[in-house]
Amino acid sequence: MEDTAVLNTNIIVDSPNVVYTDSEIISSYDYSDARVHGNILTPTTERLVFKTERHVPRVGALLVGWGGNNGTTLTAGILANKLGLSWETKEGTKTSNYFGSICKSITVRVGIDDNQKPVYVPLNNVIPLLDPNDLEIWGWDISGVNMGDAMRRAKVLDWNLQQQIYPMLKEMVPMPSIYLPEWIAANQEDRADNLIHGTKFEMMNKIRHDIRDFKNSKGLDKVIVVWTANTEKYCVVRHGLNDTAEHLLNSIREDSDEVSVSTLFAVASILEECTYINGSPQNTFVPGCIELAERFNVLIAGDDFKSGQTKLKSVLSDFIINSGLKLQSVVSYNHLGNNDGKNLSTPETFRSKELSKSGVIEDVVRANRLMYKYDESPDHCVVIKYVPFVGDSKRAMDEYVNEIFMGGKNTIALHNTCEDSMLAAPLILDLIMLAELCTRIQVKRDKDEKFTKMHPVMSILSFLLKSPLVPSGSPIIHCLFPQRYAIINFLKALIGLPPESFLMLEHRLECLRNSDRE
């Protein structure tokens, strides 16, 4: 096979480091870093070989909390795109799209042309990715309302679009789910009419049965489970309860009150060898759950969808501190009126959200010890209030106060209106598409004989999550641009291309400019 990689047959990239076969892409990548020992900096290079299956299988997604705003918006959006629908609004005709999805809406620079101009291709042309229109979607919900009426209850999409989608959605009824009122706000009780009963072990086995039944009835190769239900309170991590896989499984068998609903879904998914993504801020992935994923080599990712205010905060804190300004205070205020806001109106569930939002500036502060001492960090306050009238249109207000030259102060105040579920829905799609890709990738060091799967904890998806879960001992990166380029450079490595670089030496060094003219 010649060393030529074809991107969706319309762009050709020649590389000595990649081989395409009918079934696989095999690429090599030189991973370079520098290790510091005392005052000695030592460059290191490790050659990695990636093997990526080209065939995209039949994939299904099961959403926990399917009947909520995110689930109904995502399902309706996929149907609208699949059918190519358009609808009328007071601003004119709108057409279906996947704006907000990096997999469907952004481009990647793959090189330069003969005139030294950059060449860009759609990100989903770099490597074979799942087409959202081919995704089978179903799920569980504690409310038995059909998806058409649930969409109307959410009040997210334009009414003319809802009218077109409603006949199809009303035929979709969520499977019964698990409701344990001690884990979420008491105000959710009025929705809880579609429930699984029994011990926690019995409920977990019912979830496992539902996964198998969905997979077999739809003829699927893979199932990915996504938690998009209510935020739970934090659970206790304790020796003998959930600190190891065996302790966690025993706690489920013994019907322990201290095993959360989201952890039950995660364990059920792992035992069925299905990728599990946690889209809420609670600590679903207790140590025993992570150990179980590692034992079964099942991919997991979390925590909490990063769709609005936190994404902006990860950009601004990076910009401020890396511009040499000392960020001293960050105050974030939110009010929203959807069911997520209603659930977060209690202190226990709000605490989970507060923790996921508060860690976003830590790594950029930690990286700068010129301005910050080792025990110093900016004041950081997060407030969330429930205001029913604003519905899904969340208001986010931020104030950043920076210390500048010679004792001066600089204040940045922002107001951000987030259409919460319309930002989250394409983000969920990205998580599903990239997680599915990760299941098709194997890697080895050049000197090793066998390929292995990726680490079960998919930290590569940190760009899409507020409080990214990482393998034990790994640094947590919150800054948005490093997270974004981690995904882009990873995809480029899979087809033998070098990582993204902004050196542009061909334009900045006279010797290279002269050689181009010659």
Automatic annotation (TrEMBL):
Predominant cellular place of this UniProt entry's protein: cytoplasm
Catalyzed reactions per annotation: D-glucose 6-phosphate = 1D-myo-inositol 3-phosphate
Pathway it works in: Polyol metabolism; myo-inositol biosynthesis; myo-inositol from D-glucose 6-phosphate: step 1/2
Gene3D superfamilies linked to this entry: NAD(P)-binding Rossmann-like Domain
Localisation per UniProt entry: Cytoplasm
Domain Myo-inositol-1-phosphate synthase GAPDH-like positions: 308-421
EC number(s) recorded for this UniProt protein: 5.5.1.4
Keyword flag Metal-binding: no
Lineage: superkingdom: Eukaryota
InterPro entries named among the record's database cross-references: Myo-inos-1-P_Synthase, Myo-inos-1-P_Synthase_GAPDH, NAD(P)-bd_dom_sf
Protein name as it appears in the record: Inositol-3-phosphate synthase
Organism expressing this protein natively: Stentor coeruleus
